[in-house]
Amino acid sequence: MRIRRRPVCKRFVLGLVLLLLTPPQSPGVPIISAQESPWACPAPGSTSIPASEATPADEAIAPVEFPPGSRNLTVFAAASLTDAFEAMGEELKAEYPTLSIAYNFGGSQALVTQLREGAQADVFASANAVQMQAAHDAGLITGEPAIFAGNVLVVVTPNGNPADIQDAADLREVGVRLVLAQPEVPAGGYARDVICRMAADPSTYGHDFVERVAANVVSEEEDVRDVLAKVALGEADAGIVYVSDAVAAGDQVHVVDIPDEVNVIVTYPVAVLAGGDEALGSAFVAYLLSEEGQALLESYGFQPVK
Q1: Average pLDDT in the chain
Q2: Where are the domains of the chain?
Q3: What is the bridge-based pairing of β-strands 178-181 and 253-257?
Q4: b (16+ CB within 10 A) / e for 79-107
Q5: Which of 143, 144, 250, 293 lies in the 20 to 30 Å Cα band around 268?
Q6: What angle do CA 274, 277, 282 make, to 5 degrees?
Q7: What is the architecture of the domain spanning 153-262?
Q8: Angle, alpha carbons 28-45-176 (nearest 5°)
């Protein structure tokens, strides 16, 4: 498996957040994002940035200062963060024995719904800017979100690659059983953006690429880890997940890279939640941005932000 790790510039990702939230529109011609409709492709350049355009950041990282005494930290986090955050929790509890950490992992959109309905937590880590903006608009967060990690997408197949998928273009072949996350799930929206990028190059990916790939979708899952599980169990021939998920799966899956020119930079924002333990939540966010936190995230396949 070939994994490309490139640092993500904070200035770049802030611009990306604004671009994702306010796509340009031509008079009288609505632009529909692939994250809003499964197979309606956006106008070129309107929703996401090619993975080859990130540049290093040079901003200082604040020191981590966890408050003293026994504390209970609750973190709502995107499903793709499961392995990295659980390892991070073990590291923190070893360093701060009186710290207790509870995680709730799931699709970012489902987590926002839970928070809107009254669930209590201290930190929200989303897999995209759209759901963080939804949390902000609902008055759920305090302060400004911080970008703490990046990611890119890959195609995964069951170990042994029984459908003989050699490159991303093969997702169009008749009979390929493809699994994606639901379109409103960040991983599902990003996957559809990537499919639309491929379709914009018919000389490489063929005509009617979107329609042919859509015809192969046999299941749409609630989060990216469900996509990964179905592929690992051989219930599908292929799925599109984050590279960090492929790292977590190890030899349970075979990885097919998605070329940079049609891939996207996925950025993860995190924020302290209103009504939670602000001091504790802020310390966890600072840890995510620390050298130690960034190194741990990178070891799990994420791209650092410095």
Answers
A1: 84
A2: 1-23+45-151+267-306, 153-262
A3: unpaired
A4: bbbbbbbeebbeebeeebeebebebebbb
A5: 250
A6: 85
A7: 3-Layer(aba) Sandwich (3.40)
A8: 105
